[in-house]
UniProtKB/TrEMBL annotation:
Name this polypeptide is given: ROK family protein
Family per record: Belongs to the ROK (NagC/XylR) family.
Higher taxonomy: Bacteria, Bacillati, Bacillota, Clostridia, Lachnospirales
Length: 322
């Protein structure tokens, strides 16, 4: 009988679910909107509904479910099984997993932070397959991350480790959402890149960037900048070089602390490809404390995109639940 591990990724907008086969591949994935009134009960009802629909499609029964893993955008206390802090969900401190267990008694389950799940998914089924240690850095609205050491997720004593957006790269720097100043996230997230682009544009009225966004600052996105760099716009090149400098400072810090086999960069910015990677690698090679070592951290882009969170949530349950 074919067995499936089910990965559930609960986001602020969508709940994505995947049936993962025994080769750690997604056999089927689907998603539903996160209920507007996102009470724990509404969320559980949506999850159960979608799992049943997908099981029907794959023609499998509950008996074929091996493990169920859930990823949530918050801090999960593994001892109490509760979500202690969730920014984008309107509930907290509720026993989400306990509620799901009532629908699937006897099936082992685990719940993890979504960024950690994505890192683990990328590690096991994506770009990190061949290595033992990997630090994932996701450049999006903020900066998320996950730390995998000796093939295990590192969560810290309170399950809140891996907040790689919130170490400081500039002590007197710009304020961060977390209350500190000069965090990596405030300089190297996609949001930060867009702000840096807009600031440069205000001083450079001739830049191609203006044409690229229909002369509307509100329309500036990461892609606007990368498109203009490809057309050799000087302002765009300047912004990108500055951004790569900020990014490299954070990435080199991470490498100096962990010296991992691999640093994996995910999020929308990774679509820029070599425009970012070449400059970043060059700086890292110059400044990595272990630059003379025979072995250095590989810097690569994530492969699995949104699937990483689903696969990782499921496989964390499979690999670390009894
Ligand atoms: Zn911060």
């Amino acid at each position: 009988m074919k067995k499936y591990t089910i990965g559930v990724d609960i986001g602020g907008t969508n709940i994505a679910i995947g049936f993962i086969n025994e080769d750690n591949q997604l056999a089927l994935k689907d998603s539903v909107e996160t209920p507007k009134r996102g009470t724990a009960k509404n969320i559980i009802d949506s999850i159960v509904f979608l799992i049943q629909k997908m099981a029907k499609e794959l023609n499998v029964l509950k008996e074929n479910f091996d493990y169920i893993g859930i990823g949530v955008p918050g801090t999960v206390n593994k001892e109490s099984g509760k979500i202690e802090f969730a920014n984008n969900l309107s509930f907290h401190d509720e026993d989400l997993m306990g509620m799901l267990k009532k629908h699937y008694p006897g099936i082992p389950m685990a719940m993890n932070n979504d960024a950690n799940a994505a890192a683990y998914g990328e590690f096991v089924a994506g770009v990190g397959k061949e290595v033992d240690s990997m630090i994932m850095v996701t450049l999006g609205t903020g900066i998320g991350g996950g730390i995998i050491i000796d093939r295990k997720l590192y969560e810290g004593s309170n399950f809140a480790a891996g907040e790689l957006g919130h170490f400081v790269i500039n002590c007197e720097g710009i304020p961060c959402n977390c209350g500190r100043r000069g965090c990596f996230e405030a300089y190297a997230s996609a949001t930060a890149l867009i702000e840096q682009t807009k600031t440069a544009m205000k001083n450079e009225k001739e830049s191609l960037l203006w044409e690229m966004c229909d002369y509307n600052l509100e329309k500036v996105e990461g892609k606007t900048l990368f498109d203009c760099v490809r057309l050799f716009d000087k302002t765009a090149e300047k912004v990108l070089n500055q951004y790569i400098y900020y990014l490299s400072v954070g990435i080199i810090d991470i490498i100096n602390i962990f010296q991992p086999d691999m640093v994996c960069i995910g999020g929308g910015i990774s679509k820029a490809g070599d425009l970012i990677l070449d400059g970043l690698k060059e700086r890292v090679q110059k400044e990595d404390y272990a630059r003379t070592s025979k072995k250095q951290a590989k810097i690569v882009f994530a492969q699995l995109e949104n699937d990483a969170g689903i696969i990782g949530a499921g496989l964390l349950a499979k690999h670390f639940t009894n």
